[in-house]
Amino acid sequence: MKAAFVLVKCELGRLEEVANAIMEIEGVSEVHSITGEHDLLVKLYAPSYEEFGDLIPDRLQKVAGVAHTVTMLAFRAFKPTA
């Protein structure tokens, strides 16, 4: 599985509504409220990078209350050695 992280800017007053709607999208594993320019950090998985091309613009960006997104594809995950 491939991983992506999406920074989401919400319309004012809609953060919780947007976060709950995003959690319902298949492939989304985590949604965190964050500080800074964006409101949410979304971690999601798909079988291939190409599938993010459908998942993000066709599902995540169409959630009511999403104002703006920035997508980052993850190429490698690092884990501590025992």
> How many domain regions?
1
Shape: globular
- Please tally the β strands and state the result: 4
The helix fraction, in percent, is: 25-40%
Question: What's the main sheet like?
Answer: 4 strands, antiparallel
Radius of gyration: 13 Å
Strand content: 35-45%
Q: Tally the helices.
A: 2
> Uncertain regions: pLDDT < 50 for 5+ in a row?
none
Succession of helices and strands: EHEEHE
The CATH topology is Alpha-Beta Plaits
Please list the strands of the largest sheet in the order they lie side by side: 2-3-1-4
Instruction: Determine the mean pLDDT.
Output: 96
- Per CATH, the class reads Alpha Beta
- Structural class from helices and strands? alpha+beta
CATH architecture, please? 2-Layer Sandwich
- Which superfamily, in CATH terms, is the homologous superfamily? Lrp/AsnC effector binding domain/regulation of amino acid metabolism (RAM) domain
Give the N-terminus to C-terminus distance in angstroms: 24 Å
